[in-house]
Write a structure and sequence with these properties.
binds adenosine monophosphate, binds magnesium ion, two-stranded antiparallel ribbon, alpha+beta
Length: 486
């Protein structure tokens, strides 16, 4: 057991102090019967919080009902483009920023709640969250973290004892989330819309200090901030693509300035490789389909550029020219990150030249798409092919001649099987397993969820007893649909 400091935990209010125009002091709603469903003990320790204390006297911190003295919980204001349409006032309608704390390695982290009750930003919503979707955010965000992808983290999910009305009545929950901040593209859009250039500048400076400190020393710090966000998002989305992650709701209010993945709603991992894959029930046009994500990110960054134009140059035409030129780097960053990720997935040694790597990658993508091959298990099985056993991967194709020709060409490049195993996961939170775990958990059985978490928390390390977790969904699972507004 760790000792004393936790009960006297100090939460800073840096966001609220530096940007009061964007922070509405607010209180979490009471929780009639709070119970910890999941506590992320390693993360708690990383933050200097004693897990035993959190389960006991500290439970009120995880629900926002008992915050440390001096803390100022706030609902954060932001705007956002949702599926292309602009909403000038979104903000935390069911969330609160409790404050910031310094973790064991000296990093400033936001402690934030989701499902903590209505706020002045709730519009028609109830401010609440159901157990299933909060556990879903826990599992998927922790899986992303274990895959090495920048993301917000989940500290805990606490059931509240308060029923939540959705299509049916569901048990309610609060998610305690940790992030390097909750600054979004939509935060800048909100600040820009106030026409208060001083506020916009302070927001940009706050973002530089927290996420991109090198920009402070640049000749033009606000332009350097923009360039850093473009680079961070390009790299992030490339990582999503490499593991087959579909965010599902890439609105500008769901895109961070830090480059962390945020707001796990209708997200899911692809099974069969198909760029047109959409899971979200409301994404009927396929705007946020798997293969459209890089373009959606670039579009969001153009909205970010618009929001900060007054910081880029006094003259608007000059500012636009600067923004357009800087945004041009998105494609270069994305391509570089994706190509080097694909090289790693294919185990290609450094000596393989760029043209050959790119041609063999393109050929493989065409084969995977034509035969709708399961993305995760294919790349893992390719590791066995590099060791001389191509059958497990070969059996996934209809076009056997195409696979054989490709494999001969690839093997001639000398792929490194051990390196492939470090980059191609065995376990991702597959949709059928997530659904099974959430259904059981909502009915009070947490065992399948614990098992799934065990699998996805060490995604590259194949273990006996978890065979089911490495397999694609059975055909009977059918097409998968996810829902927002949960
Ligand atoms: P999201 O789809 O989670 O990114 O949320 C979009 C916006 O809707 C944000 O402003 C949320 O705060 C708000 N929102 C989502 N669900 C609720 C809810 N149950 N009650 C109030 N506001 C909500
Ligand atoms: Mg959101």
């Amino acid at each position: 057991m760790t000792s004393a400091p936790t009960p006297t935990l100090a939460l800073d209010s840096r966001f609220a102090r530096e940007l009061p125009e964007l922070a509405l002091p607010w209180q979490a709603v009471d929780t009639p019967d709070p119970r910890v469903l999941i506590l992320n003990e390693p993360l708690a320790r990383e933050l200097g919080l004693d897990p035993d204390w959190l389960r006991g006297d500290g439970l009120g911190l995880l629900t926002g009902t008992r915050v440390p003295e001096g803390a100022t919980p706030v609902a954060q204001a932001y705007a956002g483009h949702q599926f292309g349409g602009y909403s000038p006032r979104l903000g935390d309608g069911r969330a609160l920023l409790l404050g910031e704390l310094v973790d064991g390695s000296g990093r400033l982290r936001d402690l934030h709640l989701k499902g903590s009750g209505r706020t002045p930003f709730s519009r028609g919503g109830d401010g609440l969250a159901a157990v299933g979707p909060m556990l879903r955010e826990h599992v998927v965000s922790e899986a992303m973290h274990a895959l090495g992808i920048p993301t917000t983290r989940s500290l805990a999910v606490v059931s509240t004892g308060r029923p939540v009305q959705r299509e049916t009545v569901l048990p309610g929950a609060v998610l305690a989330r940790v992030a390097s901040s909750h600054l979004r593209v939509g935060t800048f859009q909100y600040a820009r819309a106030t026409d208060d250039i001083d506020l916009l500048g302070r927001l940009a400076d706050h973002a530089i200090a927290r996420h991109h400190p090198a920009a402070a020393a640049a000749e033009h710090p606000h332009l350097a901030l923009f360039e850093a966000v473009v680079a961070a998002q390009a790299t992030l989305v490339a990582q999503w693509m490499l593991v087959g992650f579909v965010h599902g709701v890439m609105n500008t209010d769901n895109m961070t300035i830090s480059g962390e993945t945020i707001d796990y709603g209708p997200c899911a991992f692809i099974d069969a490789f198909d760029p047109a894959t959409v899971f979200s029930s409301i994404d009927t046009g396929g705007r946020y389909a798997y293969g459209n994500q890089p373009v959606a990110a670039e579009w969001n960054l153009a909205r970010f550029a618009e929001a900060i134009l007054p910081l880029l140059a006094d003259d608007q035409d000059a500012a636009v020219a600067i923004a357009v030129e800087s945004l041009g780097a998105f494609r270069e960053h994305y391509s570089a990150a994706w190509s080097s990720g694909m090289r790693a997935k294919l185990g290609l040694p450094d000596g393989v030249d760029r043209a050959e790597a790119s041609s063999i990658t393109a050929e493989l993508i065409a084969l995977l798409q034509a035969d709708h091959v399961d993305h995760t298990s294919f790349f893992r099985r390719l590791g066995a092919a590099a060791r001389g056993d191509a059958e497990p991967a070969r059996g996934m194709f209809l076009d056997l001649a195409g696979f054989d020709a490709w494999t001969t060409r690839w093997l001639a490049l000398g792929p490194d099987a051990a390196a492939m195993d470090c980059t191609n996961p065995v376990y991702v939170p597959r949709n059928h397993l997530v659904e099974e775990a959430l259904t059981a958990a909502t009915d009070g059985d947490l065992a399948p969820l614990d098992r799934l978490l065990e699998a996805v928390s060490s995604p590259y390390d194949e273990r006996s007893g978890l065979e089911r977790h490495a397999e694609p969904a059975p055909d009977s699972f059918g097409a998968y649909t996810t829902f927002c507004g949960t």
